[in-house]
Amino acid sequence: MNRRAFLRYTNLAGLAVGLRSGNAFGVAAEATKSGHASASAPKSGSPETILLKDYRPTSIYTIPVTQVAKAKFPIIDMHSHPYAKTAGAIDEWVRNMDEVGVEKTIILTMATGAEFDEIYRKYAKYSDRFEMWCGFDFSGHDKPGFGPAAVKELERCKQAGARGVGEVHDKGKGLRSGKSEAAGMHPDDARMDSVWEKCGELGMPVSLHVADPIWMYQKMDRHNDGLMNAYEWRLDNQPNIVGLSGMVDIFERTIQRHRNTTFIACHFMNLDYDLARLGEVLERNPNLYADISARYAETAPIPRFAAQFYAKHADRLVYGTDMGVDKEMYQVTFRILESLDEHFYEIDQFSYHWSLNGFGLSDAILRRVYRENAIRLLASRKS
Ligand SMILES: [Zn+2]
């Protein structure tokens, strides 16, 4: 589960926006540093005491507001997780999907063994609405025999109903899939070769998440553009990890070495801040797709550049959410993709202080990103 999905799922979004020691970033602390406020501290309730984490601006513009209750075209959501835990909650999720226009959701369980089987059983009632993807079992990754053992469990999961693999993470410290970790082993490690090859052989696409947004690597100071999210998920204080650019290189080496395996880069490969680079990686690698999940707020500040990127790579981008099951969550993603609305806030949804803008994607692009690319990707699998 990604950070926003987790926050949302645990209902902490409002509380955990980030800055544990709010003072470090507050106006009051800044004033104290420059020596103005030491004599008379601002009264609580004064604008000078408003903390960045509490900032909730309201747009002043009288401009069109587009409500998109249901997506313009049917959707396949390529990035979700087993958020619903009970039969009742799964029923409710399906009702939400019906109302907003999601025909199928790919559930990245990140699980293997009995845990995978249990999740599979829970969702079996709706086998036409949900697809279950499994994780990897990395146990023994540092011992001989890891490859064959991991492949054996992968084959077992496939037998048990898994149609793909995900979400597999590497945020710079090594691979992780749910509870299973392989510290120091990155996707391009030779020990993974037989596992990636088997995914291709079994016709199981892989959803791979590398790195995290750029702000998390940058200094946590007043210049950090994504501070409130970055601080909560900071990576700047972990000096021995592979950085964002290095992880992108590792990802590309992996997809180049395993041309018969289809990879889906989660969250624009975390190149939402440098879409041109992602475009180059997509152009060099035909066995790669990118999902747009959980990076709506990161691309909505640059709507014209983002829309150009969607137009250029419309065949390689797939819709995803990764942010829970609420109708409002889906509807915000539609507003960003479909409308040309400007300067609207969704701070509680995304935790950034900035305003968002719609891309106004054309019908032809929406059809591909919402559904057609996913259909092509999923249909290329052997049964
Ligand atoms: Zn995810």
Report on the architecture of this protein:
The protein contains 14 helices and ten strands. With 383 residues, the chain is of the alpha/beta class. The strands form three sheets. A five-stranded parallel sheet has the order 4-7-8-9-10. A three-stranded parallel sheet has the order 1-2-3. Helix 5 (146-159) runs parallel beside helix 6. Mean pLDDT is 90; it is low at 1-37. Bound molecules: zinc ion.
Write a concise synopsis of the structure shown:
This protein has 383 residues and is an alpha/beta fold. Helices cover 36% and strands 12% of the residues.
Features:
10 strands, single chain, five-stranded parallel sheet, three-stranded parallel sheet, 383 residues, alpha/beta, globular, disordered N terminus
Q: Strand content of the residues, in percent?
A: 5-15%
Mean pLDDT: 90
**Could you give the count of β-strands?**
10
Secondary-structure element order, N to C:
HHEHEHEHEEEHEHHEHEHHEHHH
Listed once per kind, the bound small molecules are: zinc ion
Low-confidence sequence ranges? 1-37
Tell me roughly what share of residues is in helical segments. Answer: 25-40%
Global Rg: 21 Å
What layout of secondary structure does this protein have?
Layout: H1 3-9, H2 27-33, E1 75-80, H3 87-100, E2 102-108, H4 113-123, E3 130-133, H5 146-159, E4 165-170, E5 174-177, E6 180-183, H6 193-201, E7 206-210, H7 227-232, H8 244-257, E8 263-265, H9 275-284, E9 288-291, H10 296-299, H11 303-312, E10 317-318, H12 327-338, H13 347-350, H14 363-379
Helix pairs in contact: 5-6
This protein binds zinc ion.
The site of zinc ion has 7 residues, from loops.
